[in-house]
Each structure stands twice: as structure tokens, then as C-alpha cells.
Amino acid sequence: MTDPVHSLLLVIVIAAVTAAIRFLPFLVFHRHTPKTVLYLGEVLPYAIIGMLVVYCLKNISFAGSTHALPEVFAVLLTVLLHKWKHNTLLSILSGTLFYMFLVQVVF
């Protein structure tokens, strides 16, 4: 099997498994969803975002050449944009693009 075909099949399988895992609770509990599942559906997205923030910022060095300015500015933009628009996708995408711009062009 060629590499592009193998890669495409791998992405399809991963996407299918991810979708199945996400939709499985709704299919299993289609009539009455237990309170535990509803609770986890409310709190897990925030916990996952918190873990991603910690993971992304764990290796910041304030003593480095940029003094962590790209990271700080990108986080500030993300937080301010999210507080203003209340759109998670927009704020994360904007913060990421701004960070990449700062790292590649400014610093």
C-alpha cells in the first residue's frame, strides 16, 4: 500500500472511531440519559481545555530570548476574544494564528 493511501485510510479510521466514541452515549441512552453522563458532558469540555492550556504553556521560559512574550500575547488575545465574542473556535484559532505570526515574523 502506498504512503498516501495508507495515510488516508488511517485518518478515516481515526475519524470514524472518534465519531463513534462521541456518539455512542447518545445512541445507548437515546431515551433517558443518566445524570452522570449529562454531568460529564457539561464539565469535561472545560477540564479538557484546562489541560490543553497547561500542556501548551508548561515549557515557557521567561528567561529565554523572547521572554515568553509570544505566548503571553497569544493567551491574552485568546482570553479577550473569548470574553468578547464567546466563541471558543474563533478565540482558539485566532490565538493560534496570532502566536504563529509572532513566532515566525515578529520574534
Explain what the structure shows.
- 79% of the residues lie in helices and 0% in strands.
- With 107 residues, it is mainly α.
- The protein folds into 2 domains: 1-33; 38-107, no CATH class.
- Helix 3 runs antiparallel to helix 4.
- The N and C termini lie far apart (42 Å).
- The mean pLDDT is 92.
Number of discrete helical segments: 4
Overall SS class: mainly alpha
Low-confidence stretches: none
Q: Indicate the mean pLDDT.
A: 92
The span between the termini is 42 Å
Short description:
This protein is 79% helix and 0% strand.
Q: What does the secondary structure layout of this molecule look like, with pairings?
A:
Blueprint (H helix, E strand, L loop, with lengths): L2 H26 L6 H23 L11 H17 L2 H19 L1
What labels would you give this structure?
107 residues; mainly alpha; 4 helices
